[in-house]
Amino acid sequence: MCIVVSSMWNHYQRDQNAFRRLGSGPRRIATTPDDRYLLQCARRRKALTARQLASQLSSATGRPNAPEHVRSQLHWACELRSWTPEQWGHVLFTDDSRLNIQNYSRRAMIWREPGTRYPASNIVERYHYRGAGLLVWAGIATNGRTDLYVFARGSVTAVRYRDELVHPLVWPFINAMGTDAIFMDDNARPQRARLVRSYLESETISQMAWPVRLQDLNPIEHVWDMLGRWISGSSVHPPRVPTSFTTGLGITATTSDQRHYCQHASPLSSMHFS
């Protein structure tokens, strides 16, 4: 529902109308009266997010906001709720994240719709981070972790995902964990490519069935939070995308050329998972 609301709001900002365009695609969840109601709510309170608008629509219509992926997540949780800590210890949790390597500019950035005045109801304050960011990837398990990998410039394709992550990082780690090891990813498009699935099957790497939009339950999100806090509190930042650096959290980040770039000092000498 949030995707439908966000798409309709972007369509209104671009074309100044919320009329539907006929075409193929999945069945729409919201009806024409729902569109009008959402448009009125968005005009009255411009600071509302897509999730808040979807919640208001669900309360007004009495229809539960539970699409198919929510039901699949519930089914997945019911199946795995009886797992023991020993069973979860065989899982390698992986994920990628984009980290900003420069501090917050501490400037109050505002956004308003063109043609509107400056009352508080028409202004949305936004946080603005200048400078480049790093797209990183890592994997953690109960008794270990992989290196923190920093992607070079460009998009992450299925070929890059296999050649830069799965083969050099995931495969050795899974083999070291034993025959009961399970590989978990977050259902991104490169990870679901036929090329990657064929490689995992050829190397007999078991995968965990992970529902879509279930990133909040991935324990590696705590790692990204700690790493982001350390970077935001550091006074020294690399002037360009590094090829290799040590974060000070006990994690070494490298790219494909493996060249040493810089080191940062931090009070946190290591990162522990328990």
CATH class of the domain at 85-103 and 130-235: Alpha Beta
For the largest beta-sheet, the strand count, sense and barrel status come to: 9 strands, mixed
Helix content: 25-40%
Would you list the SSEs in sequence order as H and E? HHHHHEEEEEEHEHEHEEE
> What overall geometry do the principal axes of the alpha carbons give?
globular
Q: In CATH, what is the homologous superfamily of the domain at 85-103 and 130-235? A: Ribonuclease H-like superfamily/Ribonuclease H
N-to-C CA distance: 36 Å
Structural class: alpha/beta
Work out the helix count.
8
Uncertain runs: 235-251, 255-274
Per CATH, the architecture of the domain at 85-103 and 130-235 is 2-Layer Sandwich
Tell how many strands the DSSP assignment holds.
11
And the CATH topology of the domain at 85-103 and 130-235?
Answer: Nucleotidyltransferase, domain 5
Pfam families: DDE_3
Protein name: Tc1-like transposase DDE domain-containing protein
InterPro entries: RNaseH_sf (IPR036397), Tc1-like_DDE_dom (IPR038717)
Organism: Araneus ventricosus (Orbweaver spider)
List keywords for this structure.
274 residues; alpha/beta; Nucleotidyltransferase, domain 5; 8 helices; globular
Describe what you observe in this structure.
It is a single chain. The protein has 274 residues and is α/β, with parallel strands linked by helices. Among the domains are: 31-82; 85-103 and 130-235, Nucleotidyltransferase, domain 5, CATH 3.30.420. It is 36% helix and 16% strand. The protein is built from eight helices and eleven strands. Strands 1, 4, 5, 6, 7, 8, 9, 10 and 11 form a nine-stranded mixed β-sheet that branches. A hairpin with a 5-residue loop joins strand 9 (244-246) and strand 10. It is globular and about 60 Å long.
